[in-house]
Fold this protein.
Amino acid sequence: MPQLIELRRVTKAFGSLERPTVVLEDINMSVHEREFVSVVGPSGCGKSTLLRLIIGLTEPTDGEVYYRGRRVQGICEGMAMVFQTFALFPWLTVAENVELGIHGKQLSKDERRMRVLKILELMGLHGFEDAYPRELSGGMKQRVGLARALISDPEVLLMDEPFSSLDPLTATHLREEVLDLWLDPKVAPEAVIMVTHNVEEAVYMADRVVVLTSRPGRIARDIQLNMPRPRDPRSNEIYRLVDEITGIIA
Amino acid sequence: MFCGSSPFDIFMRDLWVLLPYTLYSLLRMFIALAISYLFAIPYGVAAASSRRAEKILMPILDILQSVPILGFFPAAILFFILVFQEGWVGVELAAIFLIFTSQAWNLAFAVYESASTIPSDLDEASTTLHLKGLARFRNLILPACIPKLVYNGMMSWAGGWYFLVAAEMITLGSRAYALPGVGRYLAESTYSGDYSGTVLGLIFIVLTVLAVDRFLWKPLRTYAEQFRYEYVSLGEAPRPSHLSLSPAMRLKGLLKAPVAIKDVVHPFPVRLEPVVDRLRYVAVKPGKLLGRHVKVMICAVTLLGCGLAATRTSEIMRYAYSSWSILTEPFWNPELKSEVANIPVALAASILRLFSAYLLSLAWTLPLAVKIGSDRRMFAASASLMQVLASIPATALFPIIILATMSLPGGLQLTSIILTMTGMQWYLLFNLIGGVRSIPSDIIEASEAYRLGGFAKFRKVIIPALLPSLITGSITGLGGGWNALVVSEYVVFGGESIYVLGIGAMIDKAAYELGSFSLLLTTIIVMSATIILMNRLLWRRLYHFVFHRYRIDY
């Protein structure tokens, strides 16, 4: 499969020049089309920073990020992001929040409305168009977050701990729905990169798991999972992988 | 005079004077508030948008805020009254400008604070969604500022009333201008000993403040709730908070408050939807409202102003020259020299007075704030009352306060401290109540679970949790106090001026008695410099320390 994203010797440091805090060091990795990649690692290892480097929210201190062979400078067109804290605008309704995902596109008013309704329907938010985020449960809020990301038909969907603010039951449901979307060729993005600290979640959902070490984050392992879907979260193979990865992190 | 008229005739005559007077004052205040918003929003947003802009704009704001309102009088008179040749328009504009100076800075700070504390996830989300320029302003920055714009707008509004008397009776040296308005009416009645006029004027002011609170601030407060962030915690379910505006809550609100605009602001009955959409559109996206015709109007007014100014160029030049010569009047004028020598002692006396007033204000606002803030029903009941009390132009009531307190032990000194308190206590009270209201309920619950009672709870939980708002309240309160010093250390009462030793009294003396611009300028600079130094050296450090240590966040 063709390569979508490439990170070449990426290092990221914060703080002053004299006393920098290096969060990511010498990261080399690439993401290909039709790939669901999970990035796991202990807290503070720079997982979230990695996503922010890929979409262009922040620039690497050293090294380069490429998207379809072009260097990432500024916010990348064709990528969309889902946040751990949902990042919904409390003053906008569900429909208005979702519509922000296509605000820059040249579309007629009717077309916009239609796309919003279609994606809300797909995310199971039908009937909540005019609700405000504070009126929704956590699971519903993250659905809005996903709808806002997916409405622009992004090539790459970036998810930063998308399920860790949800209660376990809601998280389980939403994981299944995200996997269903991933398997639906009509709506699925070309690639998904998900950052999580939940190893079971990473192994259960992804095609590939990238394991980072603790600060400064480096790639400890890059594991290709060739398990068919649907997977059984209680299968021996998953247990074995979870143990293996947990062993690397701990 | 009306010596032969019956009390009723006098009452009716006053009523017919007061009605239009009140409307004049109200109009003046609204225009000033609108201009304050127009100034504060771009200023605050610009200061928050880049480090470099911040470095220039915030110190300027700091200085502007610390200049006592009276310090703007010479500028107001020089510019507006001269441009419009002492005519009605010029005096009116000068008054509006003075009210503006009592409202605008606080709002600009509010915008700056809101715009620079936008949660980083929303900020990042906006960036990934390619929200730039106007779209970012409309969808992110302006909505994020709305709660503070409303809350600080209420404070500014109250502050405007406080200085209404000063703005409607502009005096500088031998020049005196009076405008039709309820502040002037109140002052003239009280100072001439016509206390029935005082009561009547007060009734009008209280009614006006109540009406504005009911029909403007209350619906705005409700509206602003929609713009608050909420914080995510694990396993969160929709909170049945009183702030959430579910349809059922809206219905209840509608039944309870049949006239409130808030019910129109929130989309509720289908029949009202077109109106609702329009209103929400106006409220959420005022960017569009500034359509072409508004821009054309602004341009036209500016051009008109410039044109008028141009026709008066020669006079302005002449006046500027004469005021320059007054400014450079020799300091070795023996009388002025002795005045200047007095500045350090006067300043020390004022600082002592200010802190006495501060401690006295704290002594009553802190317990009351804890009481009101922790009881939701009491808070709801008292919100409007506080707004009214804070809005009463205490300056106009000074003669009554003086009569009531002069014979107390401590005499004039105590009186001036009490007068100073009128300008600072409300800021403390409002900030403290806000602080109590924002203590998370889990901390209170935890303290109850661990049986912290009475004093221990007060000392270990409430005071530490209140420290950030106490600091904010102290900074704004002391700012108000400095301003109040100017009006409370020197009062004209019964035809004679009563004053105590202080820098505020010196400012008044320079302006009213000596008519000396150089002394006025010197005292104002000394006072502003003192305020800035105290803010820098004391309050800002405390603020950083307290926010670092006692901020409640998860």
Observations:
- DSSP finds 24 helices and four strands in chain B.
- The two ends of chain B are 69 Å apart (CA to CA).
- The CA atoms of residues 99 and 160 of chain B lie 5 Å apart.
